[in-house]
Write a structure and sequence with these properties.
Blueprint (H helix, E strand, L loop, with lengths): L9 E5 L4 E5 H22 L4 E5 L4 E5 L9 E10 L8 E7 L6 E3 L5 E4 L7 E10 L9 E9 L4 E16 L3 E6 L3 E3 L3 E9 L7 E7 L5 E12 L3 E3 L3 E3 L10 H4 L7 E12 L3 E13 L2 E5 L6 E7 L1 E10 L14 E2 L4 E6 L13 E7 L5 E7 L2 E7 L9 E5 L5 E6 L3 E2 L2 E5 L3 E4 L22 E6 L13 E7 L5 E4 L1
Length: 489
Amino acid sequence: MPHNYIKKLTIWMNTGKKRVVLTIASLLILIPLLFSFGSQVDRVSAAASLSIDQITWSILGLDSNDVDAGPNDFPVGVRVCNAGPDPSGPLTATFSWTTANTYINLINASPTQDFPALASGDCRDIYYSVRITRDVAAYDTTRRWQISVTDGDSTVSTGQQLYVELLISQNRNSTSSITGPTSVLVGNSYTWTVDATTATNGYNEIEHYLTFCPSVYRLDSVTAQYSAPKPFTTDTFWQDGCNWDTANNTNRTTGCSGVKYGGDIIYNYNVTIVGAGACTLRDMVYDFSGSSYHYNTDYPDVTLNITAYEPACIDGQVYKDDTEDDVYDPATADQPIFPFTITAYLDLGTVGTFEAGTDTIAATTTTNADGTYQVCVFSGEPYFIGVDTNDPQVANYILETPTPNPNNLGVLTTDITVDFDFNPNGSISGFLYLDNVTQNDTMDAGEPGISGQLIQLYIDDDGTPGLQIGSDTLVDSTSSAADGSYTFD
C-alpha cells in the first residue's frame, strides 16, 4: 500500500456501547497495550489468593474468687491460607489493638512476625499471647484486636473482641501429663504432648492450650483427638459447638447450644524454638456450659520446665583424598562420601578421653551429596565428633584427619569446622626375623623368620618419637606368618 494512503485506512471496533474508528497509527499504539493488559490479567489471575480466619476463642478470664489464682495468659490466633494457583510471597503478620484497655496486653516482644511463603493450597497458623493484669477491675472488660497478614502483593485482616470473664475452678477438667523434651536448641522444632480430660460428654465451647513463652517458642500447629463427639480430630485449640459471636460475644447473654466436645483429650503441640531461655509449660482447659465458665482445678500444678539453648554447630566435609594433599578438589580424583554418618558425643567421662558406653550420643547427621554436613549441639558442653571407619564406603581407605577418632573438640561455645579426610590405604609389609648371622639389620640367608608374634600398627598422633601408649592410636593388629612375614593393607 502506498505511503500516502496509510492515513486514510480506518478500522471499525464494536465496544458494545459505541463503535470506535481507529487509524493505523492509533492501532499500532493500541496493539501493545492490549497485549500488556492481557499479560496483566493473566498475572493477576495466576497470583496467590490469601484468606484469614480466627482460630481462638474470644473469651478470656481470671479466677472468680481470687485473681491471683488460675490462668491469666491466653492465645490469640489466626489461620492464613493460600487458595490461589501460585505460591504467595513471604508473609508478614502484624498484631494491633483497635480499642484501649490497660488490663489486656500483648506479651510478645514484637507485634510483627515473619514467615516463609505459602505454597498453593497450604495454610499457616499464626499465634500471639495476651496477658490479663491480675486485678478485679479487669472483670467484664473488653478489648478488640486485629491481625493483618501481607505477602507484599495483598493483605488480609481479621479481628475480634476479647472479653474478660469470671472463671470457676472445677475438677471436672484436669490435666494428666505434659510430655516432651526438656532441653532444646534454638532453630529446631519439637513436639510436646498433653493428656487431659473433661466431663464425659464435653461442652459446647471449649479451649485447650499450652502456655508457651513467646520469647522462646513459636507455636506452629496443633493436632488433637477428642473422645467426644466420636470420632473427632482437630487442628485448633478452640472447639466452637454453637457458632460463638466473637465480634461482640452476644452468646454470653443469649446462651449457647449445639455440638459438645471433650472427654479424653490428647493434644500435640508443634513448636519452633526462636530464642534461648527457660520456660514453664502449663496446660489450660476451660469451657462454657450452663451459664458459667470453668477451668481445670489442677492449673498450674501440672507443669514441664524447658530450657532452650543457643546451638554450637559443627560443619565440614567428608571425602576420599585420592591425591593425598589434605584438600578436597573435585577437579581431581577426590570423591565426596555420602550418605555417611557423623556422630557428636557428649563427653561425660574422663575429660578429653573418649569412652564408649560412657560418652553418650548428642546428635547425628548424614552427609549431603557433596559430602558436606552440619550437626548442632548445646553450646557450653564438651564434645567428641567421629565417624565409622568400618563403613564399606571407606574400605581400602584410612582416616588421615582428624585423629584420633572420635576426635576431642573440647567445650564448644562457637561454630567450628571439622573435615574428615580419607586417604587411600597403602600396604606395609616385612619380616620379623632373628638377625643372628650377619647382624646387619637385613634378613640374610640362614636367618630364621619368627612366627606367631603380635605386630601392631599405630598412628603417631602426638608427634613424639617412639610409641606413646595412650596418646598414639592403634589402627591395626596382625600376627607374623610361619616365615616371619606380615602385611598391613
